[in-house]
Structure formats: structure tokens, C-alpha cells
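Per your request, structure below.
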């Protein structure tokens, strides 16, 4: 059976974890897939993982601390740091680990920096910042933690055995420093360029497009270590925890650094019946100005029949052919949001069109949500059976690998209104669509 893993965060669309892990799974022929989960809280990360049967999660900002109350146990470093970036399912229990420490040390080692006896400043007292402090203190560095909310830095410093200074004393903190690690989730300037001295090592946890800190540090003659080294360094032990085998380092490294240009300008909504694809598509269109295509409604309009009538009179095969033709027509479009029927991803040709031309968002709903939302509805021929719940559960389980392989992002719809889901989806992807 295909095992499912995910990176969970908010935002999460930028994450390079899926490409690293999916490439590694392919390389080692591990029957698994790795998703991006757009979540609203640590609690939702775990409830979604439970519903979908997710076996392992990489947790990113802002959930590294929020998720802790929903885990069954923390491994010792995660406990000390008070942050979790990897969750592994053991039986029915979710166990929290911290591999960010390994990530920081991997990045510093890659950059040729030995922390022992050096003075270092860590910016940001969130989960990633605290893991950086833990790793640096453990390697014999003298660390000062600086955070925009002072009290948070003081508390973490006490717990982790380092110094702390308020943000307005950043200049003092940086005096004579050999290393600056920034974990603030911002791309704008927060460190005045004048404070950056030639020869200082700078590691910014933000990766992808250049940050103000990365640019200013390079201009000042600092040695800048790319945040992707940290990402890789935390992913390698995570892979081993997930799969029980050593990570294929070079394959993951290559996948991570490969340049990609995303030219997809449509959003496709995929997912099971009753997950709200049509209404979320309309809400996205309303707030973004994209045009809507509802595949099922187009089929009904062209056939002059309802879906149930097509299934009854012409059979499912005929319906699937009409569906493929509709999805194929998306290839020439841009700036559309496409609501796909629940079974569209069962067809390879459809998957190819969706993957090449759309950012595909999987609207997840567990069986209970699906049954509640489709209750009393006779328009869905596949659920027109005696035991709807059992049928829905079986179909959903069978389809998870297909939705998973097609999607760029998954979002849990349980208890959420279409408008909220639309806003969250649009926040994640608008830069790519509008670019
Ligand atoms: C189907 C889902 C339906 C419709 C048809 C088949 C499926 O769309 O395309 O009944 O195979 O899951 P919705 O997901 O919009 O209900």
C-alpha cells in the first residue's frame, strides 16, 4: 500500500520538501508519496494526518510548537527545545522529533564554519530559532538569542543555556560575532546593513528567492550559507525516521537545487465528492478574478442530461470520455479555476493535463464529512447505494494515491466555509498565478 507523508505549514506552497522526498522515494522504489498540507493549526495538522493515514510529517512554521499538545510523546531533543519539526507515526501514536538541529549543523559544516568557541547570534525564538540555539550551544558556541518579543527570547535562553538581548540591542549582540543565524520568517530587511561585517558567516533559514538579509550580507562581504542546506540537513534524518533506510543524499540534494520555473496559471480543485470543489471554485473566482470552469456542469450542459442520467443511460465509461475531453480543453487556458469531478484523477491523461497546466489543490474531506455533505443527494450515481458510508470509505481509500500524485497542495475542508478555504488557497498560490 502507498504510504503517505506530508509537509505541513502556513504558508507551505513554497516548500521544497515534496520534490526532495518524492524524488528519493522514486529512486529507492519506496511505495510512498509526499504531500504539502496547508493547515490552519497544529491541531488540524494532526487531525488531517489521522483521517488520511499520514505516516510522517515535516512540520514547518508556524506549527513547530503548536503541534506539541496533539502528539503522544516527544523525543528528548524535541522536548528540551520545545519544538518539533518531524512527526513519526508509531502504531497509532504520533511521536515528535527535532531534526532541525542536524539541519543547522549540516549547513554550517557545508559552509565551512566550526561553531566551537565562536560567538553566534540567533535571530528569532520560534521553533527553528530554538533548535539553532540548541545545536550551537551543543557544539560549544557562545550564543545570544534575539527576538522581536523580548520575553520569548529570555524564556528560551534560560531553558537552552544561552544569552539573550532585546531586539533594539541587536547592534550590541552582533559586536564581534562570527555567525548570524536568522530564523525570522520574513524576506524584508530587519537587520540594518551597517551591522553586517565582512567575514561574518550568515545563515538565513528562509530559502528560495533571495531575502534582504542574504543580499545585504553578500554586499557586506559576509559568507552567506544558503538556507537550502539547512532544509536538506533536516530532511536526511527525517527520511531515515520515515522509511527506516538511509536517505539517498545526492538524489535529494540534486532535486532540491534543480531550478524550476512554474508557468502554471490555472488552479484545479480536485478531491472526493462533497468536499466543496464547486463552491470553493466560485469563491476563489470571486476574490481573484479568475474564470470558473465546472467540469461536471459543462458535461451536463453539453450532453443535455444530468450526470445521473448519463451514468444510467450511457454508462460510466461514456461519462469518463466526456470528462477527459473537458479536462483536455484546459490545456489551452490560463487564469481559470477548474472544479473537477471526484473521479477525474483516475485517468492518466487527465493527471498529465492537470499537472502540466494547473496548480492542483486537493480538497480533503474525511468519510464523515463527505457523507454529511452528500446526505439525501441523489445526483451522485456512485453513492446511490445502500451502504453509502462503506462505499465512500472504500472509494476514498482507493483514490488517495491518485489525488496525492496529482496535487500540489492539500487542505482539509472539515468544518470550514468555502470562503475561508478560498482565501487560504489564494494566499498560498496567488504569487505564482499573478507572476
Ligand atoms: C464522481 C464525482 C462526481 C461526478 C460523477 C463521478 C466520482 O463529481 O463527476 O458522479 O467518480 O467521484 P463531484 O466530485 O463533483 O461530486
Amino acid at each position: 500500500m502507498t504510504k503517505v507523508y506530508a509537509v505541513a505549514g502556513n504558508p507551505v506552497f513554497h516548500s521544497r520538501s515534496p520534490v526532495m522526498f518524492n524524488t528519493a522515494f522514486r529512486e529507492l522504489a519506496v511505495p510512498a508519496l509526499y504531500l504539502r498540507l496547508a493547515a490552519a493549526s497544529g491541531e488540524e495538522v494532526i487531525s488531517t494526518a489521522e483521517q488520511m493515514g499520514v505516516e510522517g510529517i515535516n512540520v514547518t512554521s508556524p506549527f513547530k510548537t503548536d503541534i506539541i499538545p496533539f502528539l503522544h510523546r516527544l523525543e528528548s531533543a524535541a522536548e528540551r527545545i520545545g519544538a518539533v519539526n518531524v512527526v513519526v507515526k508509531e502504531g497509532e501514536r504520533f511521536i515528535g522529533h527535532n531534526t532541525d538541529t542536524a539541519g543547522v549543523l549540516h549547513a554550517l559544516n557545508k559552509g565551512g564554519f566550526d561553531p566551537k568557541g565562536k560567538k553566534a547570534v540567533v535571530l528569532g525564538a520560534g521553533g527553528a530559532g530554538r533548535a539553532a540555539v540548541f545545536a550551537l550551544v551543543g557544539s560549544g558556541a557562545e550564543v545570544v538569542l534575539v527576538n522581536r518579543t523580548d520575553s520569548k527570547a529570555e524564556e528560551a535562553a534560560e531553558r537552552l543555556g544561552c544569552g539573550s538581548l532585546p531586539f533594539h540591542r541587536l547592534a550590541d549582540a552582533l559586536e564581534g560575532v562570527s555567525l548570524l543565524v536568522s530564523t525570522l520568517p520574513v524576506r524584508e530587511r530587519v537587520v540594518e546593513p551597517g551591522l553586517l561585517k565582512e567575514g561574518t558567516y550568515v545563515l538565513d533559514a528562509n530559502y528560495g528567492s533571495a531575502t534582504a538579509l542574504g543580499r545585504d550580507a553578500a554586499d557586506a562581504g559576509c559568507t552567506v550559507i544558503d538556507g537550502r542546506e539547512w532544509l536538506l540537513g533536516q530532511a536526511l534524518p527525517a527520511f531515515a525516521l520515515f522509511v527506516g533506510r538511509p536517505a539517498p543524499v545526492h538524489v535529494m540534494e540534486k532535486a532540491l537545487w534543480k531550478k524550476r520555473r512554474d508557468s502554471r496559471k490555472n488552479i484545479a480543485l480536485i478531491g472526493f465528492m462533497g468536499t466543496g470543489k464547486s463552491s470553493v471554485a466560485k469563491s476563489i473566482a470571486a476574490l481573484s478574478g479568475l474564470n470558473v470552469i465546472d467540469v461536471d456542469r459543462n458535461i451536463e450542459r453539453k450532453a443535455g442530461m444530468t450526470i445521473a442520467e448519463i451514468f444510467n443511460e450511457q454508462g460510466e465509461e461514456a461519462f469518463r470520455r466526456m470528462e477527459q475531453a473537458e479536462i483536455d480543453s484546459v490545456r489551452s487556458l490560463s487564469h481559470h479555476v477548474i472544479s473537477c469531478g471526484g473521479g477525474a484523477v483516475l485517468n492518466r491523461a487527465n493527471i498529465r493535463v492537470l499537472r502540466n497546466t494547473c496548480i492542483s489543490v486537493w480538497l480533503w474531506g474525511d468519510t464523515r464529512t463527505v457523507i454529511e455533505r452528500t446526505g439525501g443527494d441523489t445526483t451522485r450515481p456512485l453513492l446511490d447505494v445502500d451502504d453509502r458510508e462503506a462505499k465512500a470509505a472504500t472509494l476514498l481509500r482507493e483514490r488517495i494515491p491518485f489525488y496525492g500524485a496529482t496535487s500540489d497542495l492539500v487542505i482539509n475542508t472539515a468544518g470550514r466555509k468555502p470562503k475561508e478555504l478560498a482565501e487560504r488557497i489564494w494566499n498560498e498560490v496567488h504569487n505564482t498565478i499573478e507572476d
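The mean pLDDT is 96.

Regards,
D.
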